[in-house]
Design goal:
The complex is a heterodimer of chains A (535) and B (254).
Chain A: E1 2-5, E2 11-15, H1 30-39, E3 62-63, H2 66-79, E4 86-89, E5 103-106, H3 117-130, E6 136-139, H4 143-153, E7 164-168, E8 171-175, H5 197-205, H6 211-216, H7 219-226, H8 228-238, E9 255-264, H9 267-287, E10 290-301, E11 306-317, H10 320-333, E12 340-352, H11 353-365, H12 372-389, E13 394-399, E14 409-413, H13 418-430, H14 433-440, E15 447-458, E16 473-476, E17 479-494, E18 502-511, E19 516-522, E20 528-533
Parallel strand pairs in A: 1-3, 6-8
Antiparallel strand pairs in A: 1-2, 4-5, 7-8, 9-12, 10-11, 10-12, 13-14, 15-16, 15-20, 16-17, 17-18, 18-19, 19-20
Helix pairs in contact in A: 4-8, 7-8, 9-10, 10-12
Chain B: H1 2-14, H2 18-41, H3 54-59, E1 70-75, H4 82-96, E2 100-104, H5 111-116, E3 124-128, H6 132-144, E4 150-154, H7 160-173, E5 176-182, E6 194-201, E7 207-216, E8 223-229, H8 231-253
Parallel strand pairs in B: 1-5, 1-6, 2-3, 2-4, 4-5
Antiparallel strand pairs in B: 6-7, 7-8
Helix pairs in contact in B: 1-2, 6-7
The chains are: A alpha+beta (535), B alpha/beta (254).
Chain lengths: 535, 254
């Protein structure tokens, strides 16, 4: 039993699942209805504890929430896309009605896919039944006719003997014969035309109860007397006026919010709870053939402090196992100080599954004959590494037009937000390729010190006089190295725009024992540095 | 047959849950059979990865490295060239399949030298680790990932137990693991398939390295080879791709 606050704050019943039972009818005051229900012993001991203004009502009484209702219906509309690509809510064609209660499906040309209209209707009914929902389905030539038949066709037996009717587990379906236009509607009450209550009242005053009575009247007369609405509705029902179903534009919200009954800091319990929520989200994603690209998991403790786990995926995925593996890796790395009472999941970025995969992997797969499977493993690897080590630890390298060796290479995370990726691709294109080649011809060490290491040197001439030429020895740690051979110098003067002018003469040197180092002399003060190892 | 296989694996990937697990086994089986046929066509044995140097391949019992093996290069001192040898093997491994992963615990890896060795930097995944436990974990993960051709890194913080785990991981994933380690590790038990000791030699003309085979399965230890690192030769490796992009540029400009 649903109730809602009506005018002057009176609570009235607005809907009741089985109106015949207990004598409860729509519009009955709630106090009366609940008393009725109690007297029938229906409520038994199950009383809901309510606070404040909420009256103390038996458990089967629920407040009617139009918004939640609407949301549920929209969700159902999304689910119905398995039957038809075009699914709309009732009010998509008539925005004025506030509370939609029907779903409209355009099945033009689709019956063949389901082996006939009857089979299509039957399947719809079965699928709804599997979800535990009873429906009234009507299939007709126009939106208006289908609406009329779904709402009133079942109560009106006489004129519809040729329509196929069937009943299955609380649902009823009706199939109007094709191409008959107005005939199936003729004996229906005028209420079936989706008219306003005001118009209906005036029609009733005039003794017009059935559609065929209305059809007998002249259009012009109707329009002047009742306004254009009645003609429009009539035309829509007869299929003479176009009516377009527009699917609800759902801003996809990939969020889940879950409160834990028993606060916990156990990771396995948390992981299980997250997994359960995630599975539901993924189910929705799969139907859109999109995959998760970025996921935020927020854990809230009893004290209200929150911990965010942010997860970026190299390749969009809808595989629960894979995503859970990444979440578990993150969970292992965090320390929960307090038990968690609530968790929120939100998928902040999604991407089409196949498309993204091709684009991202072009670079890796182009030269190899790797199978799909090994590419998948590779994407999984990058996801796992990034998940545990962080995005700035799993990198790709790119040369950068800067002559100073420590700035000549850039490192970028493999997993980027889509926007960043495209911006980067732009930059990549603009880099002159010739630059790369020239620079690759220069011999560079395999390992570069984070910061040049100052060296103590021993030279035959005092350092101040040694304008050029290498010292004889240099000291590194406790070891002294004699320079046996050298190549260079390669002069690099740059960095003035950074405010730190770098003027260096680089030498490749080989010590008497054969090791090779990359040294440079700072030209400003003659100081020697070790910058790398030819490992 | 091939087309069918590719399609099957794609489908299993698209579908969640039970479907994946049910047909996954079949796909694996088919793949294994396909691999058998492929290798049979090449003459039975699984192809070995060359070390990149004929002198080294000659003293290896199988004339190269097995995929799924660990290879250790012990270096007497930094700058002795062990990294270059490892990089050369990585080039050979990646030429046949997949990207190279570099696990860099010191943050000193400098990419242009890898490009010199002929490696395609767009297919290089650089992983930086800070904690030793992260390093061991990253090695383990990468070695298990079948899509990777080889993994290279400077390892001086991992213990013998870690390395034992890595050896098992490499066998599972079939990834070639190339570890550059300090010569002090010589006294530790060896879990690698092949262990080299690399010493730099004073050069006569080109850079020379003395490479001693300390251990290899099915071979006598203590065999020594000498390798010359020819800078010009590695430049030759670079040449084809440079030539290609140059011609592309020409045609684009024309």
């Amino acid at each position: 039993v649903l109730y809602a606050a009506q005018a002057r704050g009176a609570l009235k019943v607005v809907a009741c699942a089985e109106p015949a039972q207990g004598g409860i009818y729509v519009g009955m005051p709630v106090a009366e209805a609940s008393a009725l229900a109690r007297s029938r012993g229906k409520s038994r001991a199950t009383r809901r504890k309510t606070s404040g203004a909420e009256p103390d009502l038996p458990a089967m009484f629920h407040r009617y929430e139009p918004l939640a209702d609407r949301r549920a219906l929209e969700e159902l509309a999304g689910w119905c896309e398995q039957f038809s690509p075009l699914v709309g809510l009732e009010d998509s064609t008539a925005p004025e009605s506030a509370a939609p209660e029907s779903l409209l499906l355009d099945v033009t040309g689709l019956a063949g896919l389901f082996h006939g209209e009857a089979a299509l209707v039957e399947q719809v009914v079965r699928q709804f039944d599997a979800r535990g929902l009873g429906v009234r389905v009507a299939l007709a030539d126009s939106v208006g006719a289908a609406w009329a038949l779904a709402h009133y066709g079942f109560d009106c037996e006489d004129s519809l003997e040729d329509a196929e009717k069937s009943q299955l587990a609380g649902s009823r379906s009706l199939l109007a014969p094709a191409g008959e236009g107005a005939r199936p509607l003729a004996s229906l009450p005028v209420d079936a035309l989706r008219l306003t209550a005001e118009t209906l009242a005036r029609l009733a005053e005039l003794g017009i109860h059935r559609i065929d009575q209305l059809q007998a009247l002249s259009r012009c007369g109707l329009a002047t007397r009742f306004g254009p609405e009645i003609v429009r509705r009539l035309d829509q029902a007869l299929g003479q006026a176009e009516e377009v179903i527009s699917p609800p534009r759902l801003a996809p919200s990939w969020e889940a919010d879950w409160s834990l009954e028993h606060p916990t800091d156990r990771q396995d319990v948390l992981a299980a709870a997250i997994g359960e929520q995630l599975e539901k989200l993924l189910e929705k994603l799969v139907s859109r053939s999109e995959g998760i690209q970025k996921l935020i998991c927020r854990l809230q403790s009893e004290q209200g402090t929150t911990t965010d786990l942010t997860l970026g995926l190299f390749r969009p995925s809808v595989r629960l196992k894979h995503v859970m593996e990444l979440i578990k890796l993150r969970l292992e790395n965090i320390r929960l100080e307090q038990p968690i009472v609530r968790l929120q999941l939100s998928i902040t970025a999604t991407a089409p599954l196949e498309y993204e995969q091709r684009e991202l992997f072009e670079e890796i797969s182009s030269c190899t004959a790797s199978s799909q499977d090994s590419l998948r493993q590779l994407a999984g690897l990058i996801d796992r590494l990034t998940s545990r080590l962080g995005g700035d630890s799993v990198l790709r390298t790119r040369s950068w037009p800067d002559p100073q060796p420590e700035y000549a290479w850039r490192y970028e995370p493999w997993i980027q937000t889509p926007r960043a990726t495209s911006a980067k691709a732009e930059r990549k294109k603009s880099l002159p390729a010739v630059e790369d080649k020239k620079r690759l011809r220069l011999e560079r060490p395999l390992r570069l010190a984070h910061r040049p290491i100052p060296l103590a040197v021993i030279s035959v001439v005092p350092a101040s006089l040694a304008v050029d030429g290498l010292p004889l020895y240099f000291r590194l740690g406790h070891e002294e190295h004699r320079i046996a051979r050298h190549w260079g110098p390669e002069r690099i003067e740059t960095g003035w725009w950074r405010g730190r002018l770098a003027r260096r003469d680089y030498y490749r040197v080989e010590t008497s024992t054969g090791e090779r180092y990359w040294l440079f002399r700072q030209l400003q003060d003659g100081q020697w540095f070790l910058h790398g190892w030819f490992d | 047959m091939l087309a069918l296989l590719a399609r099957t694996s794609e489908v299993t990937w698209m579908l969640p849950g039970s479907v994946t697990s049910a047909s996954g086994g079949l796909v694996e089986e088919l793949k294994a059979r396909l691999k058998q046929w492929e290798t049979a066509g090449r003459g039975g044995e699984q192809p070995r990865v060359s070390s990149g140097f004929a002198a080294l391949d000659r003293i290896l019992p199988e004339q190269g490295f097995r995929r799924g093996a660990l290879v250790e290069w012990l270096e007497e001192a930094p700058g002795s060239g062990a990294g270059t040898l490892a990089l050369s093997a990585a080039y050979e491994a990646c030429r046949q399949a997949g990207p190279l992963v570099v696990i860099d615990s010191s943050g000193q890896f400098y990419p242009p030298a890898a490009a010199w060795a002929g490696l395609d930097l767009s297919r290089l995944i650089l992983v930086r680790t800070r904690q030793p436990q992260d390093e061991a974990w990253a090695w383990d993960q990468v070695l298990r990932a079948a899509g990777v051709a080889a993994v290279l890194g400077w390892v001086d913080r991992l213990g013998s137990r870690d390395l034992r785990r890595l050896q098992l991981a490499a066998e599972t994933g079939g990834v070639l693991g190339l570890l550059v380690r300090p010569a002090a590790a010589r006294s530790e038990p060896c879990w690698a398939d092949v262990r080299w000791l690399v010493q730099a030699l004073p050069a006569v003309s080109e850079r020379r390295l003395r490479v001693e085979l300390l251990r290899a399965r099915g071979s006598l230890a203590g065999v020594v080879a000498e390798v010359e690192l020819d800078h010009a030769a590695s430049a030759l490796r670079l040449a084809p791709s440079v030539a290609l992009s140059a011609s592309l540029r020409r045609s684009a400009g024309a």
